[in-house]
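Reopening: Radical SAM domain protein still failing for me.
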Amino acid sequence: MRADVTHDPTNCSPVPGSPSYLELFHSGELLERVREAYRRLRSCDLCPHDCGVDRIGGERGICGAGLLPKIAAASVHNGEEPPISGDHGSGTIFLSGCSLRCRFCQNFPISQLGNGQELTTRALAERMLRLQRQGVHNINFVTPSHYLPQILASLWLAIVLGFRLPLVWNSSGYEKPDALALLEGVVAVYLPDMKYADDETALRLSNAPGYCRSNRLAVAEMLRQVGHLRLDERGVATGGMIIRHLVLPDNLAGSDETLAWIAENLGRETHISLMRQYFPAHLAAETPGICRKITDDEYERAVEWLETCGLENGWVQD
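Support: Ran it again with your exact input. Result attached.
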């Protein structure tokens, strides 16, 4: 980024077809949300853990996050669902830390060991702009919930510098509707997990108290904000929601119950990414019930449940 170029924020007025966050920027609403989000860091209540730590003062809660955003990678990624990756890839930014402690997490060095680099919100904005220059379809924040304030601040700074891409919120789904409300009109596509249908299993495998209610309220709020998935003429997502569900051994994910709840409460038009890539990563090998891969029969049974529920939109894996 050239240091001799200046940018005039008064030139950020929205035009037809531009991201809706430009309207929030132009009205001053986006800046007010940045301020409100940072106020919540004084006694952090961004996720259902409600740790109450003073992150501005240097304290850290269950997620391990402090005041500065911390990222493990920012790169072009082509391995997401087709409407996210498109032909040119998704600009994927992996945030370090996580509000869950999944014993089978495949990204545990990032989510639980905290691998990554702390940087300023200005530096994060520059990463977003760098990916935009590489021609990606969107900026895809992975495990972002604990850095919601910093992401809003980085977006505000990036807009001033010419950022215009849609945002994807690629999250665990263990979130709070009142925190998600700060993202209304900011996030174009929500990509949440629905991991469990049983709170006891969620607590044992992911240290997530009250998971089911929190998760279901969160995805309902996401759907309220963005509606069902919408694509452009290239098949790239312009808005909406895709729910990811990872099939676990012995149906510990409660796939039948979760898929039935989605069909009944969110609608059969909901897009589902039914994932079969489970393997015993991290602490799973020593955890009863999840110490093996899923079988072909277990995944095929989940596909049958998907069809029985009338959920015809989305993706299954070979």
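DSSP finds eleven helices and ten strands in the chain. If you still see a failure, please send the error message rather than a screenshot.
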